[in-house]
Amino acid sequence: MEGSVDHNETLDSLLHEERVFRPLPQMMIEAGVNPQDLRAARELADTDLSAYWEEAAEELDWFTKWEKVLDDSEPPDYRWFTGARCNIVYNALDRHIETVNKNRLALIWEGEPGDSRQFTYYELYRAVNRFANGLKSLGVSKGDRVVLYMPQLPETVISMLACARIGAVHSLVFSGFSARLLRERVREIHPKVVVTVDGFYRNGQVIRLKEEVDRALIDTPAEILESVVVVHRANVDVDMDSARDYWYEDLVRHERPHAPAEIMAADDPLFILHTSSTSGKSKGVIHSHGGYMVGVHRTFKWVFDLKPTDIFWCAADPGWITGHSYLVYGPLLAGTTTVMYEGHSLYPQADRMWNIISKYGVTIFYTSPTQVRTLMRFGHRYPEQHDLSTLRILGAVGEPFNPEAWIWLHKNIGKGQCPVLDTWWQTETGMIMISPMPVSVLKPGSVTRPLPGIDADIVDIEGKSVPEGKGGFLVIKKPWPAMFIGVLGDEHVIRDHYWGRFPGMFYAGDVARKDEDGYFWIQGRADDVLNISGHRIGTAEVESALTSHPHVAEAVVVGVADKIKGQVAKAFVTLNYDVVETDDELHSELKSHIHRELGPIVIIRSIEFLDELPKTSSGKIKRSALK
C-alpha cells in the first residue's frame, strides 16, 4: 500500500528531544554569517554548486587559477579545480607573513609536565622551511611519502607542513599504535623517511616511541625506507643507527629558513590517513591539496564564526582527520591561533582541560562526545575552579552526542552562554558536512542541517528517501571539494562501495533520521542496529536514554541473539564517581528508566557495570570487543 513503511527498510525512532536553544541576541548581532547570509548561500549552492565553491576558492591564493571548478564528466571520479596550481602550505603560512598576521601567534603548545612553547606565524614559517630543506637533504622530493609516527608536539605540525611544502605526501600514524601496526603501514606506504620522537609524556609516564620504531623496522630493506628522523622530547636514551638515523635538531640546525613552496596541481596528493576501525582492515584515505584546502578553510571560518581575537583549541590528536583538518590545516589557513596539548586529559587530575582553557583564554573549544562524557563523571566541581568566561563557542565531533552530555557541556562549561555545535563528518569527507552554525536554533543531540553546498538525505535500503521521523541510511547526493580522491591500494572501492551501494549517492555508513524541521539525528553506524521483534532501533538512541539517568556517565549497547525476539539488548555502563547504590539496585532502576524513556519495545537482557569502556585509539568505544 502506498505510504506504508517496512520495518526492514527504516529505523524506529523512540527518543523525542523537545528542548530547544535559541542563539543569544549578541551572537546574532556579531555573527560573521547571519541567517540571511546562510539562506543566500544555500540558495546559491542549490542553483549553482560550482559558483558557490568558486566563491569560497577565491578567498585563497593560487599560483594558477582553475579551468573548471568541478569536472563531473565521469562520476564518481569527481575532480575539483582542474588545471589549478596551488600549495596548501603557501596558504597556511606564506600569505600570512605578508600581512599583520606575521607576528600573531600561530601555535600554542603545552606539554603534559607543564612546559610550553609558542610560535608566531613567522617563527612557524621559518621552522617549517628549515625542516623542508632538511627533508630535501635526505633525498625527499615531490611525490615521495613520509610516515610521521608522532604525538602532539610542535614538530608534528612542522613535519606535516614541511612535507606538504615540498610536495611530499605525509602519512601520520597515531602514536598509541604498536610497532606491529607501524610495520604494516611502512610496508604499505613505502616511505622514504620516518619521523618520530625519542619519547613523550602520557598520563605521567614516558612512552618510548623510538624503541617501537626500531622494533617495527627490523629487516626493513633500504629500498623501502632510507632514513629515520628523531625529535628530542623526553631526553631518554635511544639506539641510533649511524647509517639511517638522524636527530631532528642536528638536521635543521644549519638549514636555511627559506624553501620555495612546490607548485602542486589541485588534485596532487597531500596526505594519506587511515580510517580508524574497530574490526577489519582500515583504509588509507588520500586527500589532495586544492579541494581539501577550499573545503576545510570555508567550513572552519563559517562553522566557528571566526574572529580576529579567537584562540582555537581542537582537542583531537593530529593522528586523526579531526586533528588534520581542525587542529592544523583549518586554523592555519584561516590565520588564527591553534592550541595543542601533549598529554592525558585527566592528568594530573580531571581539571587539566579547564585549566588550559583558562590559562590561554581559549574562545572556541572543539572536542568529542566521549571526552565530554569522561569529564562528566567528575561532576561540576572541577570546571567551577577555573575561569571559563573567554569561551564563546563549543563543538563536538566523532560519534552521536547524547542530549544529556550536550546539556552538561552547555550548562557547566558554556555557562548557558555558548552554542554547542554538534558536527558530522568523516575521514573520507575531509571537512564538516552537517552542522549547526552559531546563529542556528539548537536541539540537543541533533547535528541540525547540512552546510551550504552539501546535499544530504536519509534513504531506505532501495535508495528512496524515507519519511520524516523514520530512520535510514545517511547519503550525500552531490560531490564536495574536500572529498577524498582515492584509497591506497584499492582503485575500485570508491566506485564499488562508497558510490556503488546507492548509485549516484555517497554512502556514509551511518544511520540517521530527519525530523519535521529538516534536522538530522545520527543514530549510529549502519552495523550498530538492534532488531527487536522486527523493530530496527539505532543503538545510539538506547545509549542516549541510558546516559540521561543521573548516575550514568557512559553507556554502550550491543545486540544479543534471542530465540523469541530475534535480538535483545545488552548494556555496558560506567557510572559517575559519586554513585553509592549497589549493582542490583541500579540494574533494576536502569531497566525501569529505559522502559519509561523508550517504552516496552526495547528489551534489556542485562546490564554490566565497568570501571572503563574499551576504546579505540581515536577515543571511540570499541563495540567489537564488547560484542
From TrEMBL:
- AMP-binding enzyme C-terminal domain: residues covered: 541-620
- EC class (word): ligase
Q: Which domain of life is it from?
A: Bacteria
> Which residues does the UniProt record annotate as the domain AMP-dependent synthetase/ligase?
101-481
MF GO annotations: acetate-CoA ligase activity; AMP binding; ATP binding
| InterPro entries listed in its UniProt record | Ac_CoA_lig, ACAS_N, AMP-bd_C, AMP-bd_C_sf, AMP-dep_synth/lig_dom, ANL_N_sf
Pfam families assigned to the protein according to its UniProt record, in alphabetical order: ACAS_N (PF16177), AMP-binding (PF00501), AMP-binding_C (PF13193)
Determine if Iron is one of this entry's keywords.
no
> Which keywords does the record carry?
Acetylation, ATP-binding, Ligase, Nucleotide-binding
Q: List each coiled-coil range.
A: none
GO BP: any one term: acetyl-CoA biosynthetic process from acetate
- According to its UniProt record, the EC number is 6.2.1.1
Q: What are the Acetyl-coenzyme A synthetase N-terminal domain coordinates in residue numbering? A: 41-92
What is the similarity comment for this entry? Belongs to the ATP-dependent AMP-binding enzyme family.
Name this polypeptide is given: Acetate--CoA ligase
